[in-house]
Amino acid sequence: MTNPDRPRTFSMVNREWDLLDEVFAPTYSPSTGIALEFLGLTGTNSLTPSSSLLEIGCGAGVIAIQAALAGCTTVAADINENAVENTRLNAQRHGVSDRVTALHSDVFDALDDGARFDRIFWSSNYVLAPADYTYRSVHERAYVDAGYRTHRRYLEEAVHHRTDTGSVLLHFCERGDIAGLERIAEECGRELRVLRRRTVLEGQDLIEHTLLEVLPGPLAEAERGSRTSERIAASGARRGARRDRAGAAPDRNRAGARLTVTHPHALRP
Prior knowledge:
The chain is of the alpha/beta class. It is built from seven helices and eleven strands. It has helices at 31-39, 62-69, 81-93, 149-157, 178-187, 217-223, 234-245; strands at residues 9-12, 15-18, 52-56, 73-78, 100-104, 117-123, 127-129, 144-146, 162-173, 190-202, 205-216. It starts with 8 loop residues before the first strand and ends in a 24-residue tail after the last helix.
């Protein structure tokens, strides 16, 4: 259950947003802000107007609605019915109900046959739980993925819902099981290409967030020789150095603001 004392609205990207019970609260974690930055939706928008976006795990709808405000047609899907309703409320609040379709969906299950998108995005619930883990609430699904089943489905199925020139993006974090994610990608015949990295201070730790592109096997092989990004596993070798720097200089964004959050396991506001 969420904390009954948490606010009913919150501020982000210079806008006010509604927040319903049992819905992920973006103000308690840096992940939504980082995702907006990765997608170029914090102010100067880089998404192509009139393009289409599918967001998996939309939560309160901030990312999908920011994309709609940038001119995109968006579909926002979530397994949490409260999150779907929350996205609809915020689409109405910001006048983009005509460009935002909110779906109650377990990953891609509720999509129309043949639905294709220019960009598919998921800011994942990267905390790995045992495969037989029992969720205590629907809210917990925003943080925890039992056996990484949802990650496997996303890696396996997302490429089938993109347009011929579209992209599949995954926002992951080093608090998750990076080696496990790479293993699943290999089993699914997928390549993970690093597009961007962002390190923030979460509690006492410097934590790296990564924007990945999910590539189908043949395309991944064709691009293997020319890509310039590093393997995800390289981040593990850098963790010790970042830990050493944590006490000296906190990571800051371009505006100089410091981002702080508690450990994901404790995020139950």
